[in-house]
């Protein structure tokens, strides 16, 4: 650890300087807005996982792979449909269409997977559901790798052609923020915030205004009672697993444009790990918890990224370490998560 | 008679028709570690009054002996089979040698099997026996690997550069043991998914830190490797040169015309035996723990933790102990891995996927059976070997043996050759994933677990009875 420490040691004048820089409106705005943008992304990739866990008690290890499939499918649709001359408006409209199409498609795929693979093993211990979904994730990742490389696309690090379908005003710094706070923030983060709010609203409405939402909320509190009251739990499981898959894929479509991610087979594990962090911190199965945890993780991410980018801390892995430390600390301090139910997820 | 521990399995291999000397030799090995001058004692055990005891012991360990004999004989066997010359039988050439060369796992994969097997066994030790999924197990593997490489490079304060590998390996494993206790102290307050998550969190934090730890390696994302002045890792009795052999892909010892028997051992085969010996000893150590009262409490915790606690066991400390022991052997596996490869990289040691490999082979081999993960690992590496084109393998074999007409036959513009190139060559992870899912669905107890269910007990216990039945 000596090497690390010598990197991380901050000289006193530098420290004062850093504090001074931190309390400037443009820095604060930057950390906050970029943090919310990242929070939106984290929310989008995690919400499907928490829904599935909430009702079914299944930790879906194929979640990241579904996001990866979504990113690639979205990329294919965007690359095929758009030419380099397409305007920003066309791109946005098309993006929304792609999100809808992929959500529908992957919801169907997820439901089919649930019926075919997950359903036979509900009576086993939760470990087998983890293992099964993990295996499905491995297969999907490897299939994506084979198909991508057979089409001449590099499976790693990222498929740039798909990432570059982002309209210019989203990849460039946002002018509105520039005018208001005098700081450069990628337009994409503004777009992500808007999308995250929309999605959170949609999921909230689904949970609170529909029958299946009611099942999920009830099921995450007392699954046996729900069953006893005559709900067709099997059908509800199929629907919810499908929705979770669809939401994961939608998360993948968003990541396609994200400057830090982009379509690649690495999404399988990366999305999985970060979605886990968010879901566990928030409490497995809790919508509110996931939302708040996403904001915490997003702000922590943008703050530590700022620390590194300004050279205050010369340790490039700081954001990742911070995020996983948050997971560990959250589990030590409050194992059931911010809004989780205590009994869920134990033995 | 200064047989080095590594030569021994070979000489066993030679005398293996009478496989009964095997466990006795094993005993001798362990004892020799303590006192180099134990011949007198051994002879007494061997030829002494209590022949019956030895016979019973051998019968009890028949399955162990068979397995060890197989792996001891494997290098010679596979070389002999691959060396069968091609036969021209008029209509076509039959080349069984090429077939065996393509389908029998080659030595580098067999060595990978050894340390993956040990790592998976240590993973199973905690996950399969106490029921606590240790998703951050790669951290201990990484500690073992990094410790030996850094110690060899003189980077660990207090450990001089020339310290024998065996010592640094054990010290590294002890550190892993202590780290496991520290992690366990906070993690064992949690159960189920939460335990898996917090261990994963710890491992990922360490992974990210190691990736940018400039002290360990000049390029931390690539990880450290044995520098020029670092001694070649040797397995054997520390400080006794004649009882140690160097291992490693490049710098390992090789023996020509061993003991005048006309057997040549390449450096890879020497490493295979040396590493295999450590794995075997580790297996017996872990098996001893499992069969002790301590191990029975571990199983009780898996079956019903509340009840184990109610009986009066302090389950927390049993779990801590099991976690520590498991971390110890995971670190041994990591040290062997780094020693053979000559380097350690964060992605091959601390990363989540390393744990995932252990998880996969544990499930395929049979979770909750100690030897199962080892067989799972054998299966895993065989598949890797067959589907990779590094050393023989299916794809080159098909390309060479199939007639050109078939290879060139195309359906909708895709030739059969293209199919082989994209769907076979280097695609082990895909088929492994499929096999893994099939195992989870249809063989949840894994290979060894299913065999045990069939036999109605452990193989070691049931096999003699079964053989007895066939003899009559």
Lay out the secondary structure:
The complex is a heterodimer of chains A (347) and B (472).
Chain A: H1 2-8, H2 12-22, H3 25-56, H4 63-81, H5 88-118, H6 126-150, H7 160-163, H8 168-171, H9 175-181, H10 187-209, H11 211-221, H12 223-228, H13 233-257, H14 267-282, H15 287-309, H16 318-333
Helix pairs in contact in A: 3-10, 3-11, 3-13, 3-14, 3-15, 4-5, 4-6, 4-13, 4-14, 5-13, 10-11, 14-15, 14-16, 15-16
Chain B: H1 7-14, H2 21-34, H3 39-47, H4 51-60, H5 62-82, E1 87-88, E2 93-94, H6 96-103, H7 107-130, H8 138-152, H9 165-187, H10 192-211, E3 234-236, E4 244-246, E5 255-258, E6 263-265, H11 267-291, H12 293-303, H13 305-311, H14 315-341, H15 346-349, H16 352-365, H17 372-387, H18 394-401, H19 404-408, E7 410-411, E8 414-415, H20 416-423, H21 428-442, H22 446-455, H23 459-471
Antiparallel strand pairs in B: 1-2, 3-4, 5-6, 7-8
Explained architecture:
With 347 residues, chain A is mainly alpha-helical. Helix content of chain A is 75%, strand content 0%. Chain A is built from 16 helices and no strands. In chain A, helix 3 packs across helix 11 and helix 4 (63-81) crosses helix 14. Chain A starts with a helix and ends in a 14-residue tail after the last helix. Chain B has a domain at 114-351. Helix content of chain B is 67%, strand content 4%. Chain B has a two-stranded antiparallel sheet with strand order 1-2. Chain B is globular and about 75 Å long. In chain B, 46% of the residues are buried. Chains A and B meet through helix 1, helix 6, helix 14 and helix 16 of A and helix 10, helix 16 and helix 21 of B.
């Amino acid at each position: 650890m000596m090497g690390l420490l010598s990197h991380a040691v901050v000289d006193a004048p530098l420290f004062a300087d850093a504090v001074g820089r931190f309390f400037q409106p443009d820095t604060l705005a930057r950390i906050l807005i970029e943090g919310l943008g990242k929070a939106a992304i984290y929310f989008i990739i995690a919400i499907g996982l928490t829904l599935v866990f909430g009702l079914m008690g299944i930790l879906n290890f194929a979640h990241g792979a579904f996001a990866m499939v979504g990113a690639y499918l979205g990329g294919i649709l965007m690359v095929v449909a758009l030419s380099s001359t397409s305007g920003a408006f066309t791109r946005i409209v098309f993006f929304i269409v792609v999100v809808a199409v992929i959500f529908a498609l992957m919801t169907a795929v997820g439901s089919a997977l649930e019926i075919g693979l997950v359903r036979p093993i509900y009576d086993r211990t939760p470990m087998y559901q983890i293992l099964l979904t993990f295996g499905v994730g491995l297969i999907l990742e490897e299939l994506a790798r084979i198909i991508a490389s057979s089409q001449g696309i590099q499976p790693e690090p990222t498929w740039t052609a798909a990432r570059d379908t982002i309209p210019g005003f989203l990849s460039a710094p946002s002018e509105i923020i520039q005018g208001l706070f005098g700081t450069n923030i990628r337009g994409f983060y503004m777009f992500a915030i808007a999308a995250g709010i929309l999605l959170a609203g949609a999921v909230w409405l689904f949970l609170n205004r529909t029958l299946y939402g009611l099942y999920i909320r009830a099921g995450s509190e007392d699954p046996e009672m729900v069953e006893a009251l005559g709900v067709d739990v099997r059908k509800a499981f199929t629907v919810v697993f499908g929705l979770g898959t669809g939401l994961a894929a939608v998360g993948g479509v968003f990541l396609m444009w994200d400057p830090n991610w982009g379509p690649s087979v690495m999404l399988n594990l990366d999305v999985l790990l970060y979605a886990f962090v968010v879901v566990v911190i928030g409490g497995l199965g809790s919508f509110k918890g996931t939302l708040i945890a996403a904001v915490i993780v997003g702000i922590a991410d943008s703050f530590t990224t700022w620390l590194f980018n300004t050279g205050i801390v010369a340790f490039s892995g700081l954001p990742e370490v911070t995020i996983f430390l948050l997971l560990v600390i959250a589990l030590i301090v409050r194992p059931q998560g911010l809004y989780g139910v205590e009994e869920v997820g134990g033995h | 008679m200064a047989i080095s521990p590594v030569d021994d399995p070979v000489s066993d291999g030679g005398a293996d028709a009478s496989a009964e000397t095997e466990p006795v030799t094993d005993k001798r090995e362990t004892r020799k570690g303590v006192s180099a001058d134990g011949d007198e004692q051994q002879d007494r055990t061997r030829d002494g009054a209590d022949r019956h005891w030895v016979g019973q012991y051998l019968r009890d360990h028949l399955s162990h002996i068979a397995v060890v004999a197989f792996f001891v004989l494997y290098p010679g066997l596979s070389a002999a089979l691959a060396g069968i010359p091609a036969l021209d039988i008029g209509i076509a050439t039959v080349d069984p040698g090429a077939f065996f060369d393509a389908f029998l796992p080659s030595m580098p994969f067999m060595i990978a099997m050894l340390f993956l097997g040990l790592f998976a066994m240590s993973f199973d030790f905690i996950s399969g026996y106490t029921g606590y999924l240790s998703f951050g197990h790669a951290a201990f593997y990484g500690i073992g690997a990094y410790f030996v490489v850094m110690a060899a490079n003189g980077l660990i304060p207090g450990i001089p550069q020339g310290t024998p590998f065996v010592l640094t390996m054990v010290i590294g494993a002890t550190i892993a043991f202590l780290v496991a206790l520290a992690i366990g102290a906070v993690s064992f307050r949690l159960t189920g998914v939460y335990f898996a998550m917090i261990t994963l969190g710890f491992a990922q934090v360490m992974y990210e830190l190691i990736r940018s730890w400039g002290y360990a390696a000049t390029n931390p994302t690539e990880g450290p490797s044995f520098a020029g002045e670092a001694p070649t890792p040797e397995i054997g009795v520390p400080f006794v040169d004649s009882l140690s052999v160097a291992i490693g892909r490049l710098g390992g010892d090789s023996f020509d015309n061993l003991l005048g028997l006309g057997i040549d051992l390449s450096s890879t085969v020497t490493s295979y035996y040396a590493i295999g010996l450590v794995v075997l000893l580790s297996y017996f150590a872990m098996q001893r723990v499992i069969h002790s009262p301590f191990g029975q409490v571990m199983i009780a915790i898996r079956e019903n933790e509340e009840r184990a606690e109610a009986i009066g066991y302090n389950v927390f400390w049993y779990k801590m102990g099991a976690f520590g022991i498991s971390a110890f052997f995971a670190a041994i596996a990591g040290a062997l891995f780094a020693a053979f490869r000559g380097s350690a990289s964060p992605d091959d040691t601390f990363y989540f996927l390393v744990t995932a490999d252990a998880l996969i082979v544990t499930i395929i081999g049979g979770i909750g059976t100690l030897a199962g993960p080892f067989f799972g690992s054998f299966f895993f590496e065989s598949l890797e070997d067959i589907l990779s084109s590094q050393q023989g393998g299916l794809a080159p074999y098909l390309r060479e043996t199939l007639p050109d007409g078939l290879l060139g036959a195309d359906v909708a513009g895709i030739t059969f050759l293209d199919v082989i190139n994209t769907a076979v060559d280097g695609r082990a992870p895909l088929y492994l994933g499929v096999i893994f899912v099939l195992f989870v669905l249809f063989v949840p107890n894994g290979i060894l677990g299913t065999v045990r269910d069939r036999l109605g007990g452990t193989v070691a216990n049931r096999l003699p009875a079964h053989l007895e039945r066939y003899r009559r």
